[in-house]
């Protein structure tokens, strides 16, 4: 065991301070999280549109049959609750009384509060805690405490935690089990970069976590309440200065990317194989997500296409004004848009290359796509089932009007569609593939040499050595 690493008390028993990151939409399921808990750590079932099964054990495809978005949204919530409950029950059985089982939800997912209530109501006594990020989950503490379940908010700054603590969490302090600090530059999936932070200049996590601990102390939270370091965690020996450090208090570590490449990991084989080929820099921190958050994913052809689409973009006016003195004559089929001379020439060039349809964005710009791309974009927008509380791609919003009041943005994509597809065997080149920025280390780490894929138990044993 790595020097200085000691068990913590969580969920009424001693567990290793090793947390499995909960990866949404079927990338973390009962097999991986149950095995992580069985190895003595804290396994995390994703409660974000998790899989459920028919009587023969086959995954039930999440097909939406309702005609309206509102009714499809109800279908989505039912799928989410049923799937998460099934995953928790199976994970708990696999754990066999060892470790602990958490669930992970995204606060900005559609119907998050209803899903959380539905899952916790039907899994009483099975779930130790709820991790939650992607937004400011003020009601997390209230909901978790009402089921006698701990909560572990995911934040990226001391400032965010202070706001949560003062407004809500201080009223349910006894159920705060840990605070997850997720590095907004290095973690996989959606990231909590603020407008004041430069996405191109990563900051050292140590002073940020130190500031978080100081904020927790101001609220009277004891140092025994762990801060969970998440994002870019690979070898524990690289974090030696964090363990038993009085400035930081109790530290635990979250592993999101490494558990993807295990025998129990539910992701398809093609995804696992791709992880072994990545080089440093192959993960892109981008802002194409319909959530509006930054997120990190493999820079595969899917993301490259989104980058190229946004580059084929010009500003317009609805009447001649300023530099916009030239009427656009390609891609708009008779509609009147006025652009600069240079943009007119660029648009004609794109049209000649086959990007013959111009789609309006909410920012008074036009993006040029092929006719086939335009048909897919429009169909995906029409098929929206409200998987987010507010979606930039479809303009859905989980309110009475069900609208953001903004034009649907063709520069983004349907995140539910692509994540379901890649998790269930879809093309790894043509779908969003989330991963942390340390994923290139699969190729460098001798543990994975000759294509070795460990069991979760073998991975946890390896992590405990410091490697």
Automatic annotation (TrEMBL):
One example GO MF annotation: monooxygenase activity
Domain of life assignment: Bacteria
UniProt entry keywords in alphabetical sequence: Monooxygenase, Oxidoreductase
Protein's UniProt name: Nitronate monooxygenase
Organism name: Sphingomonas quercus
């Amino acid at each position: 065991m790595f020097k200085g690493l000691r068990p913590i008390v969580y969920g009424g028993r001693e567990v290793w301070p090793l947390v499995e990151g909960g990866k949404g939409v079927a990338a973390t399921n009962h097999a991986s999280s149950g095995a992580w808990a069985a190895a003595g750590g804290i396994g995390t079932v994703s409660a974000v549109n998790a899989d459920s099964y028919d009587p023969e054990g086959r995954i039930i495809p999440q097909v939406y049959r309702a005609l309206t978005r509102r009714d499809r949204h109800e279908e989505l919530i039912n799928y989410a609750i049923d799937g998460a409950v099934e995953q928790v029950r199976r994970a708990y059985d696999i754990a066999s009384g060892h470790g602990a089982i958490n669930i992970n939800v995204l606060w900005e997912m559609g119907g998050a509060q209803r899903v959380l209530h539905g899952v916790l109501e039907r899994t009483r006594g099975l779930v130790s805690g709820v991790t939650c990020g992607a937004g400011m989950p003020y009601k997390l503490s209230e909901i978790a405490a009402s089921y006698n379940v701990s909560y572990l908010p995911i934040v990226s700054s001391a400032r965010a935690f202070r706001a949560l603590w003062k407004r809500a969490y201080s009223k349910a302090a006894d159920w705060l089990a840990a605070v997850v600090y997720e590095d907004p530059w290095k973690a996989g999936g959606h990231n909590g970069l603020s407008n004041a932070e430069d996405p191109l200049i990563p900051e050292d996590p140590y002073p940020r976590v130190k500031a978080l601990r100081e904020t927790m102390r101001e609220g009277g939270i004891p140092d025994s309440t762990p801060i969970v370091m998440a994002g870019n965690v690979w070898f524990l020996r690289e974090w030696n200065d964090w363990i038993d450090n009085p400035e930081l208090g109790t530290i635990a570590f979250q592993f999101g990317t490494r558990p993807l490449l295990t025998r129990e990991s539910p992701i398809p084989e093609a995804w696992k194989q791709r992880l072994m080929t990545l080089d440093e820099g192959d993960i892109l921190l981008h802002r194409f997500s319909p959530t509006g958050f930054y997120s990190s994913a493999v820079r595969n052809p899917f993301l490259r296409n989104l980058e190229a689409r946004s580059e084929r973009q010009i500003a317009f006016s609805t009447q001649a004004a300023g530099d916009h003195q030239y009427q656009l004559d390609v891609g708009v089929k008779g509609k009147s848009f006025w652009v600069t001379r240079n943009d007119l020439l660029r648009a004609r060039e794109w049209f000649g290359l086959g990007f013959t349809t111009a789609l309006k964005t909410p920012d008074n710009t036009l993006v040029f796509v092929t006719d086939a791309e335009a048909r897919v974009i429009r169909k995906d927008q029409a098929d929206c089932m409200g998987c987010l509380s507010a979606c930039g791609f479809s303009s859905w919003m989980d309110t009475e009007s069900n609208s953001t009041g903004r034009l649907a943005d063709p520069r983004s994509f349907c995140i539910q569609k692509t994540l379901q597809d890649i998790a269930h065997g879809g093309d790894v080149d043509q779908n969003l593939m989330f991963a942390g920025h340390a994923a290139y280390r699969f190729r460098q780490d001798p543990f994975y040499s000759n294509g070795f894929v460990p069991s979760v138990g073998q991975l946890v044993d390896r992590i405990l050595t410091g490697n």
